[in-house]
Design goal:
Order of helices and strands: HHHHHHHHHH
Pfam families: CNOT11
Radius of gyration: 27 Å
Protein name: CCR4-NOT transcription complex subunit 11
Main location: cytoplasm
Strand content: under 5%
Helix content: 55-70%
Number of strands: 0
Keywords: Cytoplasm, Nucleus, RNA-mediated gene silencing, Transcription, Transcription regulation
GO cellular component, one term: nucleus
Largest sheet: none
Number of helices: 10
Number of domains: 2
Length: 207
């Protein structure tokens, strides 16, 4: 019978219908996948306190999770800039790993910043880092200051580097005599800056 205007046509499907079960429904995410997701968020931007606490707890609870969190030496600079505390904790758990050297190289090669110095400073207070890494990082600090063309930004970076170097010297993180000439020349070059003059005076007490 034809369907008239305003009437509803009943459908009678000829294809047999069956139920399809999705095995992923109600599946609980694995611990590793949760950490990887948190790491991806940490690489995209600063984590809120709750998420940062979650990833730090995960790193502390399982010594193997750091090897499966999705971080690589090439991605370390981004993590350092976005979440320096997380970066520090990751590196602390990689100290005994064969890949630690690659991560330290990435630290030396990345653009110098407050956060990169913060990460290195925290590391030096908790573990003994290879002297060649410390020397290379300090050399990069000096060169980075010299290469900044903007006077305001240069002055700011020099101040940060001077405070960083003073902390390393006072905590006896490295033998200052190994880089005495380089650091002294740096202080003289930027003697117009108060922190550089203070670092120079500290060097003189160690001669």
């Amino acid at each position: 019978m034809p369907v008239g205007p305003g009437e509803v046509e009943w459908l009678h499907p000829t294809t047999a219908l069956g139920l399809v079960w999705d095995p992923s429904m109600a599946e609980v995410p694995s611990f590793g996948s949760i950490v990887q997701e948190l790491m991806e968020r940490a690489l995209r931007g600063p984590l809120p306190p709750g998420a940062q606490g979650a990833i730090l707890s995960a790193l502390a609870s399982d010594v193997e999770v750091v090897h499966h969190c999705g971080l690589s030496p090439g991605r370390l600079p981004v993590l350092v800039e976005n979440n320096p505390t997380v970066a520090t904790e990751v590196l602390l758990r990689l100290v005994a790993s064969p890949v630690m050297g690659d991560y330290l190289t990435a630290l030396v090669r990345m653009d110098l910043s407050l956060h990169s110095m913060e990460v290195v400073s925290r590391l030096t207070t908790q573990v003994e880092l290879p002297p060649e890494f410390v020397h290379a990082f300090i050399a990069n600090c000096i060169v980075s200051c010299e290469n900044v063309s903007d006077r305001y930004m240069q002055n700011r970076l020099v101040r940060l580097v001077c405070v960083f170097l003073q902390n390393l010297i006072q905590n006896k993180i490295f033998n200052v005599h190994d880089l005495f000439t380089e650091v002294q020349s740096f202080c003289i070059e930027f003697s117009r800056i108060r922190e550089a003059a203070g670092l120079f005076r500290l060097l003189k007490t160690l001669e």
